[in-house]
Amino acid sequence: MAYNLSYKPYGERAIFIEWPAIIDEEILRDVLSFKHKIEKLNIKSLLEIRQSYNSLLVVYGFVEINFKAEIETINKIYSKSESAISLDLMQWTIPVCYEEEFGIDLEELSGLKNVTKSQIIEWHSQSIYTVYFIGFLPGFLYLGGLDKRLHTPRKSTPRLQIRKGSVAIGGSQTGIYPMASPGGWNVIGNTPVTLFDATKQSPCFVKPGDKVRFKPVSLDEYKSIKILVEAGVYQIESEVIRD
Amino acid sequence: MKPGLYSSIQDFGRFGCQQYGVPYSGVMDRYSAGLANIILGNAPDLAVIEMTVMGGVFQFDSDTVICVTGADMSPKLNGETIPQNLPVKIVTGDVLSFGKLRKGVRCYVAVLGGLLSEKILESRSMYQGVTKQSVLLKNDIIEITTSSSFLIIKNALVKLKDEVFENDYLEVFKGPEFDLLTKNQQTFLMSNSFSISKNNSRMAYQLEECLENVLEPIITSPVLPGTVQLTPSGQLIILMRDCQTTGGYPRVLQLKESSINVLAQKFTGDKIQFNLLEY
């Protein structure tokens, strides 16, 4: 489906392309496939293409750009239908320990929702989440698909420090803190997996469009996975997504 | 030996990994940092020391040539005043120190050949969570190129633009959500001067004066250094080099690259005014 896109210059060196302001997988697919097409244009002065729920930001290097000409070039390929673009999407299974040591807000959440802690864990770990984009912190995944029953307002006073790997719920979103950070989300568990590794050429193994599910693990399993992660030999469970 | 108030190593920034949520970082005032490098005959984007408000004390373990630019922090070599914006020859054991802040906010020290600190994702710019250190600490040792031969570089023709310090005008373009503002809001933005609040850092500068505002947050979307955001309470926030990659507030203006440099030399209480440019 072709959407009605808006194109705007954004500062001296970027073009902002916007889809309707809706969080939707259909739009995500269209955004990602357009991004892919623009990348294939091999624009010489292109610095990078950034993406969010409903937009692309095409950033040029240190050059003056002719907005009209560039927008025309880019828009020409939007409507051009190509044989299905393969985005090589993956589904990742991320181990999460929901035990007390990590799930510091589980108790409160279970009181708030009037259900058992294991019910909350079940709801959280049975959904399959869609990765929309990465932002906020290096390696922070914006995930869609949180069970409505788990929607919970952010804490009124944010914590000064949330530990690395914390799995948390804020409003209608769930996410993983890739590094220690202040934060106002409700922490329900922790993953031993590293989401962001600056020493790698591709510092995140997850990419927009991928799927993520959380698999509950015991504290003992958590510890042994952590050892493997630190040794750099842990293999995250994954499979290729076929449409 | 001493880092000063807030000092870090910065080059022109980390590009191509914003898609992983990594900020650009890089020197706040590219004009001054680039100038320091050019005067030494370096490429403009080599890593330099960026000091904020109060300079540090540095001892050299080898011969080299340096150049100090940006804010005037009364630079001294072994206690003797040295000039800014000119190459200064250094011999092993020399001590570079700084005194009273006379002008600007951020001062740069470039070294012949550039600083050779840790390079992560193609950049030496320090940023928490990406590089091991986010600021310089007491007694840190920074590796530099040892230069035995001192070539006098004839770059004395570099013409100094003092507008980085003198200018109170920030040149801006419309941001993606500018047209959502009412005529009154647009007029208010363009006709008033704004003062910089005490919340100003490498991440963002907040402005004191608020706009009457009923605009709701937007769906999280990309932002850039120089983006002026409008919060639901009507506060204006100008994002700087260490800003996050995405944000949820309407993006009403976008600073011209050169105006980011101007703002980087402003401090709490300084006044600025926006000057709208056409695309």
From TrEMBL, chain A:
Residue span(s) of domain Carboxyltransferase: 5-206
Keyword Transcription regulation: no
Superkingdom: Bacteria
Gene encoding the protein: pxpB
InterPro entries on file: CT_C_D, Cyclophilin-like_dom_sf, PxpB
Catalytic activity, EC: 3.5.2.9
Enzymatic class: hydrolase
Keywords noted in UniProt: ATP-binding, Hydrolase, Nucleotide-binding
Name listed for the protein in its UniProt record: 5-oxoprolinase subunit PxpB
Molecular function per GO: 5-oxoprolinase (ATP-hydrolyzing) activity; ATP binding
